[in-house]
Amino acid sequence: MKGVIFTEFLDMVDEAFSPEMTEQIIEQSDLPSGGAYTAVGTYDHAEIVALATNLSKATGTPVPELTKIFGRHLLGRFATLYPNFFEDVPDVLTFLELVDGFIHVEVRKLYPDAALPRIETERAGDDGLIVTYRSDRHLGDVAEGLIQGAIDYFGVGASIQRQDVDSQGEGQCARFTVRLTAQQAA
Length: 186
Ligand code: HEM
Description:
6 helices, four-stranded antiparallel beta sheet, alpha+beta, single chain
């Protein structure tokens, strides 16, 4: 997993909790990397699981909830780090349609070793989009948080309905129906 995910996770813990909390969970997680991440490095996915598990223990907040909060925070950070992915994008549904065929394609050029999920989209009427997440990294909660973060970014009212789909042993599959609320629909 790319270092940018780790540096952003630890920054979120610094801000949302405290720098002492960040130090504590790094120590408790007994990380092969020692917790010294650079944005362009690549680290074992197990390290973020250990960090999230220890943050959950220390805060009493369940891991899935923390993971969604992180995804939501991460999207806001992506908007600062990669503004070109947001320029000229008219609305949140169009943005979500661009993830698989454009944004993650560009991410792959920046980080050839990136481990990216498949994000399929399908329009559901004028005001809805079905976003299907598939990955063997089981980060559907991050995806949900990222989608919520995109809704925040575009400043619209929208609901997310999640359905976990049986992937028949092939990683995780989660389907999110994003629907703009009535007054926001085009
Ligand atoms: C500007 C927007 C975005 C950028 C720059 C971006 C970039 C990235 C990067 C750098 C990674 C890490 C790859 C690795 O660790 O090897 C990643 C993974 C991921 N992305 Fe995106 N992403 C964006 C939007 C989204 C959105 C909107 C979704 C959800 C619909 C999404 C879903 C995911 C998930 C769930 C992963 C974790 C890997 C996995 O589950 O297999 N991304 N993305």
